[in-house]
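Handout, page 2. Input:
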Amino acid sequence: MIHRPTVRRIVLPLLRNERGIAATEFAFILPVLVGLIMGVTEAGQRYLISDRMGSTVARLGDLITRERDLSATEIADMFEALPALSGDPAFANAGVVIVSGIVGERRRPPRVAWQRRSDGAVPSGSRIGRPGEAAALPAHLTLAEGETVIAVELFYRAETLFTRLASASASGGSCDGDGNDCVYKVSFHRGRLADLRQLGHD
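Output:
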C-alpha cells in the first residue's frame, strides 16, 4: 500500500517540473516550419524557371523573325542555341521547342503553314495546331490575308525540390502544358524582314 505523503512527494514535483516543455512545443512547430520553408523554396524555383523559359521563347522568336530567308536548316541551327538561351546545358533532356509559321487567309481562320520541332526527350504536341490545320490563336491576335506570324512554343519539365523528391512518380509521360512539373510558354512574333509564309530551300 502506497501512502499519500509518498505519492505527493514523488508525483507533485513531476507535475510542477516544466523542463522539456519548450522541446515539446518545438516538436509540434517544426513540421510547420519545414513545410513553409519547402513551399517558399518550391515557389521561388518555379518562378525563376518560368521567367527564364519565357525569356527563352521571346529571344528565339526574335532571332527567327530577323532572318530574311528562313529555312529549316536555319531553324535547326537556332535550336542548337537553346542550351545557351535557356541557361540549361542539358535542355534537350528536359524541354522541347516547337516553331510554327501561321498565315492569315481570306474569309478563313489563320492556318498553320509549317512547323519545326527541336530534338528533345519530352513528348509534347503543339497547342497551336498541326500543319494544314486552323491555328488556335489568342482572341486578340488577328492576321490580315497573307500576313505571317511565328509562334514559338516551349515545353519544359522543371526540376525543383519537390519533383526531385517525387522523381519516381513524376518521371515520364507527356508534358503538354502547365501542371505538376511542366512549364508551357508561347510567344508570337510578326515577320519584320521577310515573307515567312513558307520555309526557303536549304
